[in-house]
Amino acid sequence: SQKIEQNSEALNIQEGKTATLTCNYTNYSPAYLQWYRQDPGRGPVFLLLIRENEKEKRKERLKVTFDTTLKQSLFHITASQPADSATYLCALDTGRRALTFGSGTRLQVQP
Amino acid sequence: EAGVTQFPSHSVIEKGQTVTLRCDPISGHDNLYWYRRVMGKEIKFLLHFVKESKQDESGMPNNRFLAERTGGTYSTLKVQPAELEDSGVYFCASSPAGVGSHYEQYFGPGTRLTVT
To answer: Residue B39 has what pLDDT?
Structure first.
């Protein structure tokens, strides 16, 4: 069956360090992989999209990699700040636009 | 520009009652999506409208759920009759028409539905 795995354990890091979150998937052939941020009581907010033929995408302090052979995406936040504390969701899109979400990883950046 | 709005923010109903959730997408967005998150689970896709047409309703759990988007603007999601397992947070999202960079989706704040 199709499955998306994100580390369910919270990730705690010190301010200024780089946070790295992992998204692994099985039995999918996604055309796009997206990362969203979700704060408590709010809807997901789009951060980055990477296509199947792209290896890496950057936006300010964010970087996403996509390895379709390993079936894995890594999401990096450099120079992390307490304001980056949130739950980060990985979502796959096979091209039909219906997103399939992982369960999310909670990031806590300590000042 | 106003974001996606949803109403109500929270609804508490008894099992067997009917509830209607409303979503107003970002103005001009042809694509509208419904998702839900039940307790402890990941967000799951329910259906996708393109304008007023249902493009994909493969995620609708059963025929107690009815979604409409008359006129291609706002959408409603009716649950009738509601069951305990319908409790959760229902999210609406929208995106513009077209290909390329328009695959990101803009989410509303969600409606928390509690069925007792």
So the answer is: 87
